[in-house]
Amino acid sequence: MRTDLELSALAAAELAVRRDPAAADAVEKCRVALADEAPDGQRIALLVGWGYLALRERTEARECFRAAVSYETEPHLTDRAALLAGLLAARDLEAPALAGAWYRASAKLIAVLDQINFTDDLTTQFTDDMIWPDHPELRGDVLPHLVTTLDARSRSLTALTLYALHHAHGDADAAVRAAWQVVQLGHPTYLAAAWLAIAETLIKQGDNATAAKACQEALSAEGQFSARLLLGLAEGPEADVQTQAGTLLGILQRDAGDLESALATLTAAAHGDDPTALLALAQTHDLAGDPAAAQPIYAKLAEHELSEQYQDAIFNLGLHAKERRDLPEATRWFRQYIEAGYAAHPLAAAHLGELAYWVGDKQAALHWYQYTLDHTDLPVLVEEAEQRMAELLKPSGG
Description:
By secondary structure, this protein is mostly helical.
């Protein structure tokens, strides 16, 4: 049953749609009353916001829509409020607010947004009945007027946000379609981010050839920040788009067997000492048979214990020492890896066991092989450890 305040808000919104002179006071009175009467306020906040939007009072409208989103009492109302709050945030180029609103949307609203082409006429795609399908009296081209205020940059931002939504929900095809709209719009702030987004998604889909072309476009496009940074979704600092694109391209070239091009691309990407680019460069030097070039890069990465690349760096430093038959150095790095509890710690112990076996350190070999047996049931590691331990423990002359 509708409350008196809801009926008043409905009447005020209708006055605003009709541009009645009494509308402004009526809408404002409902807003003040809503502030004092929070229960069942989602629909009222949406109505009051719609009234403000019809009156072209977009700041007030946005605050009401944000309040309506926060109630989350009725999913279909949350969707409508999120759509409107997001469009207003896009108009003001407030990317985190746009992402924050649309990330509250349900799959139903995301499906609706996926049908929108932000490169085309939006006034025929965003209609008032999207918000008020059961209230014809509230329709008056309010939403179409709002989307006429979205310029190319605002449209690019909305399409990039839609890409992020699809990416978060694991819909790679829809994510790529949204990112392509950003490319078609061509706004320099978002162009490089869109190409990088396309490349990252295509790699997950296995289309490495097209992904490599997208990386090359990102390298030459304007704009320095990724979609995650632009939308306020990054969990920490990130390299610029060109560094990320260069790293991806170098890895793709490496995986395709073009080590010469990969080394050139990754050397350029690692110029600013980005840890991801440095690790990819070091690994590529290893594949090219040049551990001497890889060694100092791994050592640099090993100086930063809190980085994501640290564990790969110290594991590879252990492998390099093993190749040189340097048991103390291999023990230094592999022990750090093992004591940190990284995923491949049984393998690190197996490497130490093997190296100790090679250099004739029986006690060290037994110790590390026993550690391997105690921490894994992987057949290839278990079989080697058991065989070598049996050999080492076999009585002399037996």
